[in-house]
Amino acid sequence: MMQWNDHFKMGIPAFDQEHRQIFKIAGQILEIAQAPGIDEADRMPALRQALNELVSCFSQHAAQEEAYMREIGYEGYGLHKMLHDDFRSTQMARYRQIVERDVCNKEEVWNFIGSELGWLLEHIATADMAIVGKSVLSRPAPGGLELAAVEREINRLLAATLDIEANAAVVDAHYRGEPLGEMICQKIVYRRAWRKSVVLCGVERSFVRRVARCLYGDLFGDKPDLVLSTIEVFTARFWITLSRQLTGLDDNIDVCESRFLLEGTLAEELRGLEPSISLLFRSDHGKFFVATDSWRIGERMKLA
User: Domain 145-302 adopts which CATH fold?
Assistant: First the structure.
């Protein structure tokens, strides 16, 4: 599975071990799902047992982490617990769909494990690291946002979550969906309090391949569903974290919808969205873009 390294260590041995254990169990689940030597009558009970172990491991870890935050008086406890609760309500719905039936297919397992790891990777690198003061992210000073601030925060976030030096820079502050080659595009609908916001985003496949190799090694080439599930959930969480960093707001943000866009529909989606901000970035690993209709990033930005 994932190539674990010191970049993901919080420095609290118990929590670091629990994070490794979660990824280890996820790897075991993938092995069970694809192992050719297991009789199909035995595969589902083995999967159910491993999935139950994964959920139990996460639940125990989250409870211990929350207890530690309360013990040290961590000021970000409320938001952090909210993130754990969000994981339980969204990812566990996929888990229940698998374990409550007598049969499942490999694609369902790839989808669950991929999305679970995508969420956990972003969470460890941002929220968990913040507990011990190791997060490379910082809250900006109040005032208007400029493109340089967005570039800086995106690069810091990519370094924190993926251990990637991207050197991302805005090349078009008014992107309207012009063809960019092979892209994976996504539409995400968020709810913040009473208000909904739509984010359209996309990343060049070369960037996705770079990330997939780091996470899954040789598995990535023949497991596209696994990779796409990871990218889908990771991306949705990535833009939430960026928004919080740029605005300084910790209020609840729910993901109402997340889906990939069909090829050739991006320009039409952008016209329908009428975005208040639409930025195209180039980076050392490929291009990517983000556009939103009414998120606070767009409301406060100076498109200079």
Answer: Chemotaxis protein chec (3.40.1550)
